[in-house]
């Protein structure tokens, strides 16, 4: 079981069924299984990645470079498949451990540190050492934007204060990562530029609605179409420089020369469809009808939570996946999934339960997300907790901690954004 406190949460049959459906979503997106299903080594020299075939005899060296929250788990599985075909490698994740052919480096997230800066320098050095007869196998996953830190002129800390203001003021992931690209010397296609003229195959774990690979981890292996002007407009829109007390913010253009990308193959190996398919299968096994509200869910968490419960139907599992935003106010603590569920409580019916979770197991707290129903409201009333007060101060974590409906999974070694469920009798 991925959900560690499932037994404590499953106080009704409807809750138990909802948790089983969410568990199926977690199981379907297991990173090591994704890699084993996507990569094959045929006759010891032919690497097959989905529909792409690579003859390893054509390469002198094979490097493995991983970034993001799925990097370590994916690297461990890739090493099992490729073994001593891997010459060297570096894997930067929030989690780590022993790898046979690669160095496992642990960075900080969501706020980058000097550890991230040092690790990124090692990655840059390895990429620069790759020659035209080498192959770089890259793992690109969500969380990579913060883990990779090679700022153009600002320090990592000041750069992240800019990003923090964007997040705080409700900027979406496309806006945030557009700015990140133009503050960095490794994002926005620069990873590919550094690896050139080596061949590069990037295995992408998409945590972005619609699978825009130029946004995943700020698109390090993708030719970027955004410009310095785009980043400047976004910063002006959210008045970032003034709020960060910066006189100016030096931006850098991302590489536009298509030459750097001629030998790059980007392959999406996982996205939120995996979770939705797993959840749908389990819901049908439990005799519920299935409706997918959206696989590209975006918007303000408060509005989305209410909208989901209002669209739920009897005897139906309403599924959704994507990434919402929260405009932070007050000094509370929580994450977008907990905030979404807390918001939905104003509309929740007796016959419904709602769950929203982050696929990496970390919803800006030790909770992966939360569960909400009428029993949640009953416990809140008994403890004299006002839902509206916790919403106003963005303190969803402490609300669900007090009522006991936070979902705990620990770090999961995956990241394909968030998934949601409204289950109705």
From TrEMBL:
Stretches assigned to the MOFRL domain: 317-418
The segment(s) forming the MOFRL-associated domain are 18-243
Q: A GO molecular-function term, please?
A: glycerate kinase activity
Task: List the InterPro entries.
Answer: GK-like_C_sf, GK_N_sf, MOFRL, MOFRL_assoc_dom, MOFRL_protein
Q: Which Pfam families match?
A: DUF4147, MOFRL
Any single Gene Ontology cellular-component annotation: cytoplasm
Q: What is this protein called?
A: Glycerate kinase
Specify the superkingdom: Bacteria
């Amino acid at each position: 079981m991925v959900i560690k406190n499932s037994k404590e949460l499953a106080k009704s049959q409807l809750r138990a069924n909802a948790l089983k459906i969410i568990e199926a979503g977690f199981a379907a997106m297991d990173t090591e299984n994704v890699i084993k299903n996507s990569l094959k080594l045929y006759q010891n020299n032919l690497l097959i990645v989905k529909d792409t075939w690579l003859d390893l005899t054509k390469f002198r060296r094979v490097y493995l470079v991983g970034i993001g929250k799925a990097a370590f788990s994916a690297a461990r599985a890739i090493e099992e498949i490729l073994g001593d075909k891997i010459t060297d490698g570096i894997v930067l994740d929030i989690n780590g451990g022993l790898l046979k052919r690669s160095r496992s480096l642990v960075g900080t997230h969501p706020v980058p540190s000097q550890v991230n800066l040092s690790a990124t320098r090692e990655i840059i050095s390895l990429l620069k050492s790759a020659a035209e007869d080498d192959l770089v196998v890259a793992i690109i996953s969500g969380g990579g934007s913060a883990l990779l830190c090679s700022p153009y002129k600002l320090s990592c800390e000041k750069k992240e204060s800019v990003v923090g203001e964007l997040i705080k003021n409700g900027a979406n992931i496309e806006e945030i990562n557009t700015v990140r690209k133009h503050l960095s010397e490794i994002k926005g296609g620069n990873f590919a530029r550094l690896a050139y003229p080596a061949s590069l195959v990037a295995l992408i774990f998409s945590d972005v609605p619609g699978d825009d690979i130029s946004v995943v981890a700020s698109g390090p292996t993708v030719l970027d179409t955004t410009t310095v002007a785009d980043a400047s407009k976004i910063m002006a829109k959210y008045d970032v420089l003034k709020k960060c007390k910066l006189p100016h913010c030096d931006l850098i253009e991302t590489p536009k020369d298509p030459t750097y990308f001629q030998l790059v193959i980007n392959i999406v190996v996982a996205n939120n469809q995996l979770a939705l398919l797993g959840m749908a299968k389990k819901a049908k096994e439990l005799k519920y009808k299935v409706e997918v509200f959206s696989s590209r869910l975006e918007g303000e968490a408060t509005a989305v939570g209410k909208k989901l419960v209002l669209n739920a139907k009897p005897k139906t599992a309403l599924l959704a996946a994507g990434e919402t935003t929260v405009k932070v106010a007050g000094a509370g603590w929580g994450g977008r999934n907990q905030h979404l569920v807390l918001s939905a409580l104003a509309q929740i019916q007796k016959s419904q339960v709602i769950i929203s979770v982050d696929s990496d197991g970390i919803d800006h707290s030790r909770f992966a997300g939360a569960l909400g129903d009428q029993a949640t409201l009953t416990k809140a009333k008994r403890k004299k907790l006002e839902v509206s007060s916790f919403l106003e101060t963005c303190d969803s974590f402490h609300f669900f901690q007090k009522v006991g409906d936070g979902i705990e999974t620990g770090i999961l070694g995956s990241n394909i954004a968030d998934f949601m469920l409204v289950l109705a009798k």
